[in-house]
């Protein structure tokens, strides 16, 4: 590829994608709303742009072959707070991709698009949308947008329904963990698979307790290698008893399934900020 665009480059997951993506194209344009992301990798260039501003996003995507769209507010907020970056931002990405002839959008969707499904149901990639929050609703919107732009305008898309890409700190993560190495592999396969049309794949590692079925996405060639089971003995020894009446423990969305709409889902998740530094 000549030009690849990464949104959300200043975020934790974006920090692990920048280096491998910079090696996949002649030029990587990393973008976010911060003024600066520090040192850049060879072939990487940073441009600050607001997802909610179409003109800024269109300028960044001009001449791009593909865009890896990880930018957004990454937690539950009020609908009004999410409207610009998460809803309008998604529209701006796909519309700019269409107008500039971008071949494919690789999108950081989320398990929260189907977060109210029970974990015991072992859902596949064709499970109907069942969002757990306004945040999850935004993911549903973007997935449907991606499907429509493929059907009507032939913009390919791979929607990565990421479960939990962070250090394993709780019992839920024994099944939902996506390691950073597997994240890189997942995004790489979403980019280098010759034809994807509109596709959905769960972003999860090869965990013994994985609660979702990726078999219908096997054509992407994603074969995760890491397994959270090495943490099981320690995590389960410290875990509180299971409350079968709590949607946060019984549903795929975890804490997002039990919080009030508009209230943070991350607040109780003890996410360790191990952002990669160049």
Features:
278 residues, alpha/beta, Rossmann fold, seven-stranded parallel β-sheet, 8 helices, 7 strands, oxidoreductase activity, NAD(P)-bd_dom_sf
Please characterize this protein's 3D structure.
- This protein has 278 residues and is of the alpha/beta class.
- It has a single domain, classed as NAD(P)-binding Rossmann-like Domain (Rossmann fold, 3-Layer(aba) Sandwich).
- Helix content is 32%, strand content 14%.
- It has eight helices and seven strands; from the N terminus they run E-H-E-E-H-E-H-E-H-E-H-H-E-H-H.
- A seven-stranded parallel sheet has the order 3-2-1-4-5-6-7, with helices on both faces.
- Helix 2 runs parallel beside helix 3 (79-99) and helix 3 (79-99) runs parallel beside helix 4 (134-153).
- The mean pLDDT is 97.
Short recap of the structure:
The protein is built from eight helices and seven strands.
Task: Give the SSE map.
Elements: E1 3-7, H1 12-22, E2 27-32, E3 44-48, H2 54-61, E4 66-69, H3 79-99, E5 104-110, H4 134-153, E6 156-162, H5 173-176, H6 180-192, E7 198-203, H7 232-238, H8 247-250
Parallel strand pairs: 1-2, 1-4, 2-3, 4-5, 5-6, 6-7
Helix pairs in contact: 1-6, 2-3, 3-4
């Amino acid at each position: 590829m000549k030009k690849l665009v990464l949104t959300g480059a200043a975020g934790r997951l974006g920090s692990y994608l920048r280096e491998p993506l910079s090696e996949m194209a002649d030029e990587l344009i990393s973008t976010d709303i911060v003024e600066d992301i520090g040192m850049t990798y060879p072939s990487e260039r940073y441009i600050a742009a607001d997802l909610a501003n179409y003109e800024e996003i269109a300028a960044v995507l001009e001449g791009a072959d593909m865009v890896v769209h990880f930018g957004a507010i990454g937690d539950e907020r009020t609908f009004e707070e999410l409207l610009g970056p998460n809803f309008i931002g998604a529209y701006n990405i796909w519309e700019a991709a269409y107008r500039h002839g971008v071949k494919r959008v690789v999108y950081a969707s989320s398990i929260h698009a189907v977060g109210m499904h029970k974990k015991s149901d072992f859902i596949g990639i064709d499970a109907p949308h069942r969002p757990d929050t306004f945040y999850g609703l935004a993911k549903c919107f973007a997935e449907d947008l991606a499907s429509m732009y493929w059907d009507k305008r032939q913009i390919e898309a791979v929607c990565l329904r990421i479960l939990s890409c962070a250090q394993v700190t709780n019992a839920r993560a024994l099944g939902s963990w996506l390691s950073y190495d597997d994240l890189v592999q997942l995004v790489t396969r979403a980019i280098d698979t010759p034809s994807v049309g509109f596709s959905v794949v769960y972003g999860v590692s090869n965990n013994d307790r994985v609660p979702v079925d990726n078999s219908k996405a096997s054509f992407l060639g994603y074969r995760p290698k890491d397994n959270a089971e090495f943490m099981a003995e320690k995590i389960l020894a410290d875990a509180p008893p299971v409350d079968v009446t709590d949607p946060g423990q019984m549903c795929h969305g975890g804490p997002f399934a039990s919080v009030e709409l508009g209230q943070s889902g991350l607040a109780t998740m003890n996410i360790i900020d191990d952002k990669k530094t160049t």
